[in-house]
DNA sequence: AACTGAGCCAACCGCCGAGAC
DNA sequence: AGTCTCGGCGGTTGGCTCAGT
């Protein structure tokens, strides 16, 4: 038996609010304060659902709200917080005075997500698309090329894969000439559950405390300095909340030290086919002994609930850090070779199709 | 001028947890 | 312990605006 509706929806007005209705809410709140929203419509003389009144107040009428556009600083903060904690809009909004979760969510969905995509960054994982693709190749049970081809990342509607990521460009909304995010996120793969990796965000006070730690510093540094981040010694203390099944419960992950996003994106096999000739050299260089091997690693995922990699499991999945925290069990070349196989398979199919249907597929057809 | 599609944002929906009873 | 109510939350939808054709 479900919860009964808070009001008779057939008898309440819906849709946009009129100035008169707004005035009634404001008048009511100014004299009675906030509380017991279910009684507000009756007491304020409104033919609205109490919940609707609360939302109207929370998202629009509150006097402390800003109604102007987001500043570049606010955008940077949203991106970095989203990178850290995922789509927990209310927590993000608490760090932005005068902004509501709805504001932040809408701004993310309409502006920031596209900005990141244009930079060749998957807004879901905050990683370059090429790295996300290689992560799919790393998911256990997807060993062979055919399986990988059958698993389309686009099945996840939240996954904003682009068929051909654009080369890195200068973001329009940022004050700096440097891209605000060029560091791949190695701490998490955010597929609807893994944002719980960073687990100490449950209270705003904790959040505030942690947000002042170096966790975000690399991002902000990079907006004003070169890509050689000073975060090489930074460690993120991970402690899983009891409600989730991240493993292990305690882990330390070093942040990327000298990673160059531009270099990485330029190595994107989808963007630059010559990547295959360079990748081994590239990763040998990046993974040289002087570099922390984990700087390019991502957590490998194992699903204990039967959902595939595209399943939005909402906290029920299990992240297995066993292979990435401390011991590297899968090399970058393995990961990228699976991507290469994937690309090769596509190119091979393309060649066959071109040979078979030369009139249909002209030269400009491209992936 | 009319149409169309994309972008944007306000509002809604439904689930959930907390707390009162 | 069970039920009910409220408010919070993230995801989704509806409708307005505007640029392009």
UniProtKB/TrEMBL annotation:
Compositional bias ranges of the Polar residues kind: 293-304
Subcellular location: Nucleus
UniProt organism field: Morella rubra (Chinese bayberry)
GO molecular function ontology, one term from the record: DNA binding
InterPro entries named in the record: Homeodomain-like_sf, Myb_dom, Myb_TF_plants, SANT/Myb
Any single GO CC term annotated in Swiss-Prot or TrEMBL for this entry: nucleus
Pfam families found in the cross-reference section: Myb_DNA-binding
Domain HTH myb-type residue range list: 9-65, 70-116
GO biological process terms on file: anther wall tapetum development; pollen development
Keyword Transcription regulation: yes
Region (Disordered): 288-317
Keywords: Developmental protein, DNA-binding, Nucleus, Repeat, Transcription, Transcription regulation
Bias type Gly residues, positions: 308-317
Protein name: Protein ODORANT1
The Myb-like domain, residue ranges: 9-61, 62-112
């Amino acid at each position: 038996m479900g919860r009964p509706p808070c009001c008779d929806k057939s008898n309440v007005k819906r849709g946009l609010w009129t100035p008169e209705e707004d005035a009634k809410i404001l008048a009511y709140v100014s004299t009675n304060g906030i509380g017991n929203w279910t009684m507000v419509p009756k007491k304020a003389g409104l033919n609205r659902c109490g919940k609707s009144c609360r939302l109207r107040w929370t998202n629009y009428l509150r006097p402390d709200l800003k109604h102007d556009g987001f500043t570049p600083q606010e955008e940077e903060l949203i991106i970095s917080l989203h990178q850290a904690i995922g789509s927990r809009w209310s927590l993000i909004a608490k760090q932005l005075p005068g902004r509501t979760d709805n504001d932040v969510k809408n701004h993310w969905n309409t502006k920031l997500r596209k900005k990141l995509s244009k930079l060749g960054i998957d807004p879901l994982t905050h990683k370059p698309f090429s790295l996300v693709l290689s992560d799919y190749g790393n998911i256990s049970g997807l060993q062979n090329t055919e399986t990988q081809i059958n698993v389309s990342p686009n099945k996840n509607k939240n996954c904003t894969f682009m068929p051909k990521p654009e080369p890195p460009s200068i973001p329009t909304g940022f004050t700096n000439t440097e891209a605000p995010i060029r560091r791949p996120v190695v701490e998490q793969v955010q597929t609807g559950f893994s944002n719980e990796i960073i687990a100490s965000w449950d209270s705003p006070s904790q959040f505030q405390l942690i947000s002042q730690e170096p966790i975000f510093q690399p991002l902000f540094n990079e907006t004003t300095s070169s890509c050689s981040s000073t975060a090489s010694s930074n460690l993120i203390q991970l402690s899983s909340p009891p409600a989730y099944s991240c493993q292990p419960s305690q882990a330390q992950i070093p942040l990327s030290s000298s990673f160059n996003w531009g270099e990485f994106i330029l190595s994107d096999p989808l963007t630059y086919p010559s990547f295959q000739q360079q990748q081994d050299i590239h990763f040998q260089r990046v993974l040289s002994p002087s570099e922390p091997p984990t700087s390019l690693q991502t957590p490998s995922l194992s699903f204990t609930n039967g959902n595939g990699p595209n399943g939005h499991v909402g906290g029920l999945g299990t992240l297995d850090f066993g292979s990435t925290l401390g011991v590297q069990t899968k090399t970058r070349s393995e990961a990228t070779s699976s991507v290469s196989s994937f690309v090769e398979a596509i190119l091979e199919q393309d060649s066959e199709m071109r040979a078979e249907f030369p009139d249909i597929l002209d030269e400009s057809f491209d992936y």
